[in-house]
Design a protein that fits this description.
- The protein is mainly beta.
- The protein has a single domain, classed as Galactose-binding domain-like (Jelly Rolls).
- It is built from 2 helices and 10 strands, in the order H-E-E-E-E-E-E-E-E-E-E-H.
- The strands form 3 sheets. Strands 1, 4, 5, 6, 7 and 10 form a 6-stranded antiparallel beta sheet that branches.
- A hairpin with a 2-residue loop joins strand 5 and strand 6.
- The N and C termini lie far apart (44 Å).
- The structure holds calcium ion (CA).
- The site of calcium ion has 8 residues, from loops.
- This is Fucolectin tachylectin-4 pentraxin-1 domain-containing protein.
- Keywords: Calcium, Disulfide bond, Lectin, Metal-binding.
- Belongs to the fucolectin family.
- It comes from Mytilus coruscus.
- GO terms for molecular function: fucose binding; metal ion binding.
C-alpha cells in the first residue's frame, strides 16, 4: 500500500497565524489610476492587490503591533495577471534580512519564504531590488513557534 503525503516542508508557514492581517501598511508609491494601495496586502482578500509605480527599489512595509519573533512570510501573488513582476524580492524583519525570492512568480502563486533563522522585530519590509513594479495580493507574517521563542 502506498500512502501519498501532500504535506510540504512549508505547511507550518502556509497554515500559520497571520500577525499582519488588518494592520496599517505603507508603500513607496502607488499608481493612482488604480486603487492598489498598501492596505490591500493585508486585507485577507486575494482580489485586492498592492502595486507600486515602476520605481527603483519599490518597497512595502508594515509595523506589527509589538516586537515578534518571525519565522517567515507567505506571499500570495496576484491572480489576474503580471505574476512575473514578483521577482528579486527581499524581506527584512527588524532591519535584518529574512529571506529572498529571485522569481519570477506566476499568477496566483503561493510563495512561502522562511527566514534563514527566526528574527525578532516589529517592522517587516518587502523590497523589489532594482527597477520594477512591486505587486502582490497578500502577505502573511508568521510568528516563530514556542521552541524558537525560548532561544531568544
Ligand atoms: Ca489583498
Amino acid at each position: 500500500m502506498v500512502t501519498i503525503c501532500l504535506l510540504t516542508a512549508d505547511d507550518d508557514l502556509i497554515s500559520g497565524e497571520d500577525l499582519a492581517l488588518g494592520l496599517e501598511a505603507k508603500q513607496s508609491s502607488w499608481d493612482k489610476t488604480y486603487n492598489h494601495v498598501s492596505q490591500n496586502g493585508v486585507d485577507g482578500v486575494t482580489k485586492s492587490i498592492v502595486a507600486t509605480q515602476r520605481d527603483s527599489n519599490p518597497y512595502w512595509t508594515v509595523e506589527l503591533q509589538k516586537e515578534e519573533k518571525i519565522k517567515g512570510v507567505v506571499f500570495i501573488n496576484r491572480v489576474d495577471c503580471c505574476g512575473e513582476r514578483f521577482n528579486n524580492i527581499h524581506v527584512m524583519v527588524g532591519g535584518k534580512e529574512c529571506a529572498t525570492f529571485k522569481g519570477p512568480g506566476s499568477n496566483g502563486e503561493i510563495i512561502p519564504l522562511r527566514c534563514s533563522h527566526p528574527l525578532t522585530g516589529k517592522k517587516v519590509e518587502v523590497t523589489l531590488k532594482g527597477k520594477g513594479i512591486l505587486s502582490f495580493a497578500e502577505i502573511k507574517i508568521i510568528a516563530a513557534d514556542g521552541k524558537y521563542q525560548l532561544d531568544r
